[in-house]
Design goal:
Elements (H helix, E strand, L loop, with lengths): L8 H10 L2 H5 L2 H15 L3 E3 L6 H5 L4 E4 L3 E4 L5 H5 L7 H17 L5 E7 L1 H10 L7 H9 L1 H25 L3 E6 L7 H22 L5 E5 L6 H7 L4 E3 L6 H7 L6 E5 L1 H6 L1 H14 L5 E5 L9 H14 L3
Parallel strand pairs: 1-4, 4-5, 5-6, 6-7, 7-8, 8-9
Antiparallel strand pairs: 2-3
Helix pairs in contact: 1-3, 3-6, 6-9, 7-8, 7-9, 8-9, 9-10, 14-15
The protein binds coproporphyrinogen III (CP3).
Length: about 325
């Protein structure tokens, strides 16, 4: 997750050249370069498309801006009227550049390296659309959902349709699998989690597989805690991406050993490095052995992470795995 980013000097250079973050996302030549940079430097087994989850609100007609070091700024949707002002369908014309990036990356990527596409889950994307920015507890969206469930449901419906058609187009353009990021799944009580996370993702998956029968889909319900079990039972993903707080023992006790998982190194231990990093890597490889497993972080690489620590992590993983 967040392979490309501010911890890489070559990314910072590209970002400066583009000037604007969305310009980087929407210029195929530059976005393909950002996608490939971490593969060239580290030889990861999979690349993730360089883009952002907020291209979907943008292609639905909402204004979205990235101010340097301030995160995203959107024109907040505060009521039902705001929802009706969005486009009825995702404007794929706006997203053509992204599909072209995928085609370019596929051409340049070694055949053994998989390419991942992605979108944000409706709930997570809605939290930004409603608040107009990142918020610590996603209060604006939660309040909207409680005060006007129908209005909020209209927004989620739009995002279900948009996300499904966006993922289908990414798969058609050549990605090998897609990941659905539900970064803010962890703030909802069980019933709301079911309504705003599980059900919408179930519907997206059904729609995607209706058009691309064998679509490979990874789910990331970050911070779901014990409601993770509802997600595993209810959402037919091919693999579950685990955040760094998920206890492997809990997983072994409650989730069948044939369910593939990926994760879940704490991004902060990658930043910290040293003996703690080695210990964490080894503990994860040991704890998840015996089931289909993809070693990964539990969330994105933090901007201050030293490159040497990423190298240390990879050396450790490869030593343990005998590669
Ligand atoms: O890993 C990759 O290189 C793939 C590209 C990718 C980005 N964003 C690039 C990015 C992916 C998969 C995302 C997903 C994303 N974007 C999520 C879900 C996963 C997660 O990280 O939780 C979310 C919630 C967003 C929304 C978003 N984009 C925020 C809140 C921010 C600002 C936060 C920050 O780190 O500054 C972004 C910006 C962003 N997206 C950057 C990158 C490389 C940093 C932008 C920059 O260069 O200034």
């Amino acid at each position: 997750m967040r392979q490309a980013g501010r911890y890489l000097p070559e990314y910072r250079k590209l970002r400066e050249k583009a000037g604007d973050f969305f310009k980087l996302c929407f210029t195929p030549e530059l976005a393909a370069e950002a996608t490939l940079q971490p593969i060239r430097r580290f030889g990861f087994d999979a690349a993730i498309l360089f883009s952002d989850i907020l291209v979907v609100p943008y292609a639905l007609g909402q204004s979205v801006q990235f101010t340097l070091n301030e995160g995203p700024q959107l024109d907040a949707i505060t009521d039902r009227r705001g929802v009706t002002q969005l486009k009825t369908e995702l404007d794929h014309g706006v997203l053509t550049a992204i599909y072209e990036t995928i085609e370019r990356v596929k051409e340049d990527l070694p055949p053994a390296v998989s390419l991942l596409g992605f979108c944000g889950a409706p709930w997570t994307v809605a939290t930004y659309m409603v608040a107009g920015s990142g918020t610590s507890e996603q209060e604006p969206a939660r309040r909207f959902a409680y005060q006007d469930p129908q209005g909020f449901s209209d927004l989620i419906e739009k995002l279900i349709e948009a996300s499904a058609s966006y993922l289908v187009r990414q798969l058609e353009a050549g990605v090998d699998a897609v990941q659905i990021f539900d970064t803010w799944a962890g703030v909802l009580p069980a019933e709301e989690f079911h309504r705003w996370c599980i059900e919408p993702i179930q519907r997206i998956i059904a729609k995607v597989r209706h058009q691309v029968a064998n679509a490979k889909i990874i789910g990331f319900p970050r911070g779901a805690g014990t409601t993770l079990l509802r997600y595993v039972e209810g959402v037919p993903v091919d693999a579950i991406s685990l955040d760094w707080t998920v206890d492997p023992v809990f997983l072994r006790e409650h989730v069948a050993m044939d369910v593939p998982v990926q994760g879940n190194l704490d991004p902060l231990v990658l930043l910290a490095g040293g003996a703690a990093l080695d210990r964490s890597v080894e503990a994860i490889l040991k704890a998840f052995s015996g089931r289909p497993f993809i070693f990964n972080l539990g969330h994105g690489v933090l901007p201050q992470t030293p490159i040497a620590h990423v190298e240390q992590m990879l050396a450790r993983v490869r030593a343990v795995e005998g590669r």
